[in-house]
Amino acid sequence: MPPKPRFLCSEKDDLIWQKLGEDSDAWYETIHTTDKCREVGNFMLKYKNAKPELMHAVVRGGYNVVYRLEFADGTSLIMRVPIKGLVAFPDEKVLNEVATMRYVAANTTIPVPRIYHYGSAAENPTGLGPFIIMDYIEHHQNMCRALLDPKRPVDDRPVLDPEIDQEKLEFLYSQMANILLQLSSLNSPRIGSLAQAQAQEAGLVSVERRSLALNMNELSVHTNMPRRFLPSQTYGTAREWYIALVDMHMAQLALQYNDAAEDDDDVRDNFVARKLFRRLADANNLWPDREYSGGDFKLFSQDLRPANVLIDEDLRVVGVIDWEFAYVAPAEFTCDPPWWLLLLEPESWSGGYTEWMKAYEPRLHTFLRVLEAEEKEMAAGDWASTPSLSRSMRRSWEERNWMVNYAVRGSWAFDFIWWKFLDERYFGPNDEQDHHARLHLLSADQKAAMDTLVASKAYERSHRMIFEWDEDSAATRVDELLAS
Description:
Distance between the termini: 30 Å
Strand content: 5-15%
Shape: globular
Structural class: alpha+beta
Number of domains: 1
Order of helices and strands: HHEEEEHEEEHHEEEHHHEEEEHHHHHHH
């Protein structure tokens, strides 16, 4: 039989998604009024002794809103606030981002905004939630605008211009390569988020808190997952973090009430995929020949992409923003080729992963060439990446190791990648690319847990609602699946 057809990306809970949109729209209507902008402007004035000239319109992004106060001398401050409801742990997010920005500023030449003040929701007199007040970086546009296809409809997701000038592409890629190289030099003995020292000195940061990865935010927001099912600690080995990540995939399958699976067989596919990946991670068999030691962890930002890099009219980088989901992660994450070379993720590409890879590979060759040049230039200045980042990225691409990391970082991207690319890599031929050929690998307890989950998901498909999990009922379901 032919392989089972699959969606490139699993569905999130449509009812929750709709409510999130309605709630965030309603919140936004209350926070961009003239009175609120005046209140915010007066608060920002406490942190810069200059003559105010203009309060700009509020800018709404994916996870934050930004207030900008421009001064008579041409400079500006911004106050950045997480969007209520779309950010699961806003106080924690702000603290992590401040520590990361100050650490990057102190230990690299990557340009980041200067921070004037920050605080928790309780410390914000405007009532808007946790905040960061920082410099507005003057720029011509973000790098994504310089790279995208000008013929693509404005409302479509951005895609790299297929006819982009090669010299322009190499110049922009080379600056991104330099940023990645500098980040790859920032090491830590543990996996987790950076925390600011009590003295608040820029360089005095360390891994003191759990990682706050982008997927953790999405799981909490889109499944109403109780906090106890997300990591709560730092980790000393990559194995521990991979196990934590795939356990979150299992919790997503268990606790996403609507749209988690198309039918009973889809539930079985998803369950078996998570169990098999967990087995590999637990046995440390994801990497037959690991290049990095267990304690080699590097600062990594899944959201580092051209849209968050600001450039001037000469295409030179003047700022890198949005560090909110950066954390110290296994070196393997850093050593994967960056997904953003085409600007669009593989699960969103017309034609799927295979067509994306065909379009991606020639751009990767260009990127690796300029990365090698940056490595040589930095090595001449007594800086070197050991082992070579370009060599590690090339190996990751050729051996498709990047797929393992891409799958483990995204709960809704996981299932397609597992069955189409990873299952046969680890467990041999599987013509139908589904769970049937792998049932013999499950124990009796695992099969029983799977059958219980299938019945639960069948009930949920016929009783659609926004379900609010309490800790006890969620624990009953998730713990049974993880323990089996």
